[in-house]
Amino acid sequence: MPPFRTARRGTSPITIGLLLMLTVGFIYFLFSAPDSPTIRSATKSATNALSPPSLPFIKSKSDGQQPPPPVVHYYMSNLTASADPVANRETVLILTPLARFYPEYWENLLHLTYPHELISLGFIIPKGKEGNAAFQQLQVAVSKTQSKSSKKRFASVTILRQDTESPLPNQSESERHKMENQKARRAAMSKARNSLLFTTLGPTTSWVLWLDSDIVESPKTLIQDLASHNKPIIVPNCFQRYRDPQTNTPAVRPYDFNSWVDSPTAQQLAAKMGKDDILLEGYSSMATYRSLMAYMVDENGGDTNKEVELDGVGGTALLVKADVHRDGAMFPPFAFYHLIETEGFARMAKRLGWTSWGLPNYFVYHYNE
């Protein structure tokens, strides 16, 4: 009878082979992250209407067979929204509610130095005569910019048409700012913003820049400048150029009063209001005594990087980390703590743990009618 062997003298080739296969498979699993930080097996352009909205969709020929929707894997933990978005190749979604088309707005957009291949555009246009005119003008501008010969093409452009008309009889500046129109106008604007956001926000989006269609002048490095502060929500100061009737010389004046620091007076006013009433800023009949960023400008030119923490923000030019919206912060079309639209958004974001910031000495300029 042969002696009992307690151990093998050597390892069989089959065992060594299995160990090698397991080791190679484990290493592949660890280091098989996609080339893009968030997406694998996605093409540069979408081939199906059900493809991710962050990718441009190219229609197939009418007689061609439509390919099936792609299966795409996203690695959200690798998505960044950093102080250096260009170096990290972070995608930006610029969203604009568009009631009127201003050529100066489009030219200002084209002059942004952020890589256009990392920018997607989204527009929402109301129903009605003015909306139809804005839509036609936008179509012309988009067709020219997105042509094959254009060097300023954007990654994608999405245009939505609302099925409702604006609650205002016209979109003139004087009509828009009447106090009695504010609740209906801003509720409608909130719904438009939310529709646009929820339709276009893709899983590869790092930043959302809300840019009103009447912002006609901003620094070419607007996106990089705002993102460099690495804040979840940040807003520049919005002013307006005009000709002073007293001196007949060019001058500037504050325009957006929705970026502010709250006050005890405003809180006391809110405490006495009905649940559906809203506080409004910039009206003498509703003095809130909040600290308005519009009046925080340093004389003789101050540090453009100076930051102030805000309780309310305006939406003329507003940069938001996409994760803030993904967490659920949207634009309430109803009284939310007696605030609505962009100011309500700042309050909702704060309830979710995100802080809003402003740059009192960094300017964008609103169209002057």
Automatic annotation (TrEMBL):
Location of the region described as Disordered in the Swiss-Prot/TrEMBL record: 161-180
GO MF terms held by the record: alpha-1,6-mannosyltransferase activity
Gene3D superfamilies: Spore Coat Polysaccharide Biosynthesis Protein SpsA, Chain A
GO cellular component terms, semicolon-separated: mannan polymerase complex
Pfam families xref list: Anp1
Membrane topology designation: Single-pass type II membrane protein
Family the UniProt entry places it in: Belongs to the ANP1/MMN9/VAN1 family.
Name this polypeptide is given: Glycosyltransferase family 62 protein
Protein species of origin: Aulographum hederae CBS 113979
Record lineage: Eukaryota, Fungi, Dikarya, Ascomycota, Pezizomycotina
